[in-house]
Amino acid sequence: CQAGPLAGCRIVVTAGPTHEPLDPVRYLANRSSGQQGFALASALADMGASVTLVSGPVSLPAPAGVMYLACETAREMQALVMGSGPFDVAVCTAAVADWRPEHEAGQKIKKTGGSDTAPAIKLVPNPDILAELSAPGAGRPRLVVGFAAETENVIAHATAKRQRKQCDWIVANDVSPQTGNMGGVNNEVVLITASNVEHWPRMSKADVAKQLAARITDWLSE
Ligand code: C5P
């Protein structure tokens, strides 16, 4: 049992991309380094929370002092998150693939019929982990925070996403290539709650994590 302002608080953080296999050697994925989620898990653990970090494939070391659960697909992430609760707080930073190939071929799909043909891939929707965590009902975390990576109309899209998924807060950021936010060490985010839109200055992902951990602590103590 750790000391600190979040001692006794159980928090789940999702991070990284998910990989959705097409065959044993190919997959669909989102771009995500996992840095923001890992930094957040560390910051929350530093404040004494009992943190479960559920991450898709990334090349980052597991942060000290957190329960680290690695997964590959969205459905594996969903099973680990839902099976490890209940949680007081959930923060979903993972870039979950919205769709997966309907069928995973057991063997590598071969090129047949000449070089100008390609297989058609049918996609099916993946579970939305953030929406599932946010749904009202017994066992819902007291605070559910989502992330929204957008390339245009950031505030409008993120605000709509907060309402649609029923999470309490959304941390929105612009991931257009010219911003350098995606994959970079810095981030410029907007914290959207039911009553506020707060622009944070550009800072390191580690500092975004510390500030968000501090905000979560303040909210829990109110
Ligand atoms: O809809 P979109 O992917 O932009 O939503 C982003 C937010 O929803 C992030 O917090 C992400 O972790 C979460 N999400 C999820 N499961 C999905 C898709 C997104 O938890 N299948």
Mean pLDDT: 94
What fold name goes in the CATH topology slot?
Answer: Rossmann fold
Question: In angstroms, what separates the terminal alpha carbons?
Answer: 23 Å
Question: What overall form do the CA principal axes indicate?
Answer: globular
Number of helices: 5
Tally of discrete structural domains: 1
**CATH fourth-tier homologous superfamily:** CoaB-like
Sheet with the most strands, sense and barrel status: 8 strands, mixed
Write the H/E string, N to C: EEEHEEHEEEHEHEEEEEH
Q: What is the architecture at the second tier of CATH?
A: 3-Layer(aba) Sandwich
Give keywords.
5 helices, eight-stranded mixed sheet, 14 strands, 222 residues, alpha/beta, Rossmann fold, globular, binds cytidine-5'-monophosphate
Description of the structure:
The strands form four sheets. The protein has an eight-stranded mixed beta sheet with strand order 5-4-1-6-9-10-12-13, sandwiched between helices. It has a single domain (10-102, 124-221), classed as CoaB-like (Rossmann fold). The model has no long low-confidence stretch (mean pLDDT 94). It is α/β, with parallel strands linked by helices and 222 residues long. It contains five helices and 14 strands. Cytidine-5'-monophosphate is lined by residues 14, 74, 92-94, 96, 98, 126, 128-130, 146-148, 161.
List the helices and strands and how they pair.
Layout: E1 10-15, E2 19-23, E3 26-29, H1 35-46, E4 50-55, E5 67-70, H2 74-84, E6 89-92, E7 99-101, E8 123-125, H3 129-134, E9 143-150, H4 154-165, E10 169-174, E11 186-187, E12 189-192, E13 197-199, E14 203-204, H5 205-221
Helix pairs in contact: 1-5
Bound molecules: cytidine-5'-monophosphate.
